[in-house]
Amino acid sequence: MKLGGESLAAEEGAFGLDEGALINISEEIHEARNLGVQIAIVIGGGNILRGASLSSIGIERTTGDYMGMLATVINALALQHALERVGIPTRVQSAIEIRAVSEAYVRRRAIRHLEKGRVVIFAGGTGNPYFTTDTAASLRAMEISAEVIFKATKVDGVYSADPRTDEMATKFQELSYLDVLQKGLKVMDSTSVSLCMDNKLPMIIFNFRQKHSIKRVLLGEKLGTTVGVKK
User: For residue 93, what are the contacts with CB-CB under 8 A and spacing of at least 6?
Assistant: First the structure.
């Protein structure tokens, strides 16, 4: 599951952490986990800062990206606390080694945690500048042999334009990877979509703020937009 940092904030565009948002996402994940599935989460850091935007105050891109990676560690720890408060055992693994608060990312150890029923939270992006947490989500999904990527967003799928500003925007029920790349749709960044396309890993984009949405998608309900190989 890819969670944007904004999912931990009170509302769209807000900064910081919100208790209600943390409670909501932890309850949703608790419901999903009770179905017997293994869940790994890649968390973003946009509610704290965005590395790419720091250039406006004179911070070079590489440094800004590393600052953004540290923001994802803060969010991972907050999410870990929220999940453990509802009884879900978790482990945080960071691509940037911070031994006092997280494990270093080790693929085999992550898989072992999942086998033991723990939710694994991947922080620190890929550990490299110039790569987004979307790309980190695709990369980690490949490494742990995930069956699907859930992109939990603020809208109920992928649209031809922003439905909040364009009344003519239409929702796509199903898209191919090439559709996303050729139309320039803002599903996930092009690197992450290409990774999924090369490895035939499907993506489902849906609004996680709708109650029981994660559980409903896992049970096969057609929510949001599916990106994959068209039949």
Answer: 102, 103, 104, 105, 106, 109, 110, 120, 121, 122, 123
Contact 225, 163 (CB under 8 A): no
- The number of distinct structural domains making up the chain is 1
- H-only helix segments in 36-97: 61-85
**By CB neighbour count within 10 A (0-12 exposed, 13-18 middle, 19+ buried), where does 60 fall?**
exposed
| Residue 226 CB contacts under 8 Å (≥ 6 apart), including other chains | 173, 174, 175, 202, 203, 204
pLDDT digits (tens, 9 = 90+) for 134-190: 999 999 999 999 999 999 887 788 888 877 788 888 889 999 999 999 888 888 889
In the structure encoding, which two tokens stand for residue 191, read together? 């690197």
Q: How many CB atoms lie within 10 A of CB 148?
A: 16
* Domain that residue 172 falls in: 2-228
Looking up residue 99, the CATH number of its domain turns out to be 3.40.1160.10
